[in-house]
Amino acid sequence: xxxxxxxxxxxxxxxxxxxxxxxxxxxxxxxxxxxxxxxxxxxxxxxxxxxxxxxxxxxxxxxxxxxxxxxxxxxxxxxxxxxxxxxxxxxxxxxxxxxxxxxxxxxxxxxxxxxxxxxxxxxxxxxxxxxxxxxxxxxxxxxxxxxxxxxxxxxxxxxxxxxxxxxxxxxxxxxxxxxxxxxxxxxxxxxx
Length: 192
What we know:
The protein is α+β, with helices and mostly antiparallel strands. The protein has one domain. It has four helices and seven strands. The strands form two sheets. It has a four-stranded antiparallel sheet with strand order 1-3-2-4, sandwiched between helices. It has a three-stranded mixed sheet with strand order 5-6-7, with helices on one face. It is globular. The two termini are 24 Å apart.
């Protein structure tokens, strides 16, 4: 089991290095006051590399929250929910080096809708490079957890987060976790 955790940790570190800065344009701790677009204050969470390496639930699955001010000037045509998803593609610059993103720049989203406190995140079944969306149990757990915690803590109108695939209800995102019901922060044992 330790070998599997090492492989997952290596894969995450590699993805973090390759994806650093790619999807996070416009995601910064401070935003210039001269910008004309709306600035959103968001609380972003990332995967905890110590947890991934050790499997120790006491460490928590996630790091954060990292407060970011995100301007709509930086990503034209994105709503605030989609801006948050784009910013989750790269760990924060001011992090302790222990944060990894579970949402690579290859992940594509179909948008986010809000209905009665439930934000539904639509995930595309194919990555930007045309591969099928895939991942192990830990990757899928942290992907869902990272988005759920970030959405709920960033937007007071969001109480739960649901996921669809290609605009349709699905049993799972990557073949491991049941996504038929929405998630909240209490849905995860070792979350924060």
